[in-house]
């Protein structure tokens, strides 16, 4: 039996090769592409890190501002509470004074009524 020879097909590297160089271009170009991709990813990570640090800094500043404002409001609340307590104490004193004066007026009115009775007794 004789072997038949099929005509040899000419090898076309760019379409027939499934190696890395055939899929991505030559190895130098593939390395450059990978390097650019790495640089893009690295740059993206760096920007995200910087953004995160910036956001963290802004958050810290906001928290400090809120804490400062809270302390000021607490001081103001304490001052107002102290003033309210003083006013309440004055109100209690005023109420006692009013009661004492009312008692004194009643007492004087009774005394005046008794004097009027005596005067009427003398005048008759």
Automatic annotation (TrEMBL):
Which Gene Ontology MF annotations are present? hyaluronic acid binding
**Keyword terms:** Coiled coil
Q: Which residues form a coiled coil?
A: 63-118
Q: Segment Disordered: which positions? A: 25-52
Q: Which GO terms describe its cellular component?
A: membrane
This chain's protein is named Uncharacterized protein
